[in-house]
Amino acid sequence: MNWLRRGRVARGTVAKVKADGFAAVGGGPGRVPVGAGVPVLQRLAGDGSRVMELTTSSAPVVVGIAHHGRGHFVVDALDGRMRSGSQLVYTDGPFACRALVNADDRPVRALRIDADGPWVVEVTGLDDAVVLQGHAERGASDVLRYEGGPAVARLRYAGAPRSDGGCFLVDTFEPDGSGFLDELANHVGPWTGEVPLTGPCLIHAQSDGPWSIGVRPLAGQLY
């Protein structure tokens, strides 16, 4: 999977994911995942392979992606020179996920979409990141907002047997998306562990299988 092998170069991308189990975030095959309910800044829809320009400037945004087709589906993020800066999606079949882009000074100017059927992309502001309140479970990649202080995060990744165990990459960013903070996880196959969490922050989990996060604030913390 390219996004994992690229390491930190792949920040701001979405993993190869399946839609299975994504109903936990309100999405599902053929539906753009539901976030916090903020207005849509730009909506793109098409059928087959297209190159679509983003018109929401270079500010950090959340991108919801859904695919209706049964075959291959690939989405590449293109920079201002129309070069591929990162691969947002690489999957097959009906699919839905959410991504964080433009959060690491790598502006995305357009999306190159290679599909065998209908697809929909919706761009929303960072307010669309769902607030993490203690615990959350997701079936694929998503963007969450943590509003607390320093804490311990317990992450669990179920893996994805149909893709050699699956990949799990979790990064945190400044609350306004202005910069990268930390890498919480970068694993292949099922994994469970605890990691330090700096807060407040945006959490961008890139996953091709079900995952969960639980947060335990430090007792008597001063920050």
- Poorly predicted regions: 1-30
So what's the oligomer here? Answer: single chain
Globular, elongated, flat, extended or rod-shaped: what is the shape? globular
Taking the alpha carbons of the first and last residues, their distance comes to 38 Å
Sheet-strand content, in percent, reads over 45%
Number of strands: 17
Largest sheet: 5 strands, mixed
Helix content: under 10%
Structural class by secondary-structure content: mainly beta
| Biggest sheet, spatial arrangement of strands | 9-11-16-13-14
Radius of gyration: 16 Å
Number of helices: 1
Whole-number average pLDDT?
82
The SSE string, one letter per element, is: HEEEEEEEEEEEEEEEEE
Structural topology:
Elements: H1 2-5, E1 40-47, E2 50-53, E3 61-67, E4 72-78, E5 84-92, E6 95-101, E7 110-115, E8 118-124, E9 130-131, E10 135-138, E11 142-146, E12 151-157, E13 167-173, E14 180-188, E15 191-197, E16 201-207, E17 211-217
Parallel strand pairs: 9-11
Antiparallel strand pairs: 1-8, 2-7, 3-6, 3-8, 4-5, 4-7, 10-17, 11-16, 12-15, 12-17, 13-14, 13-16
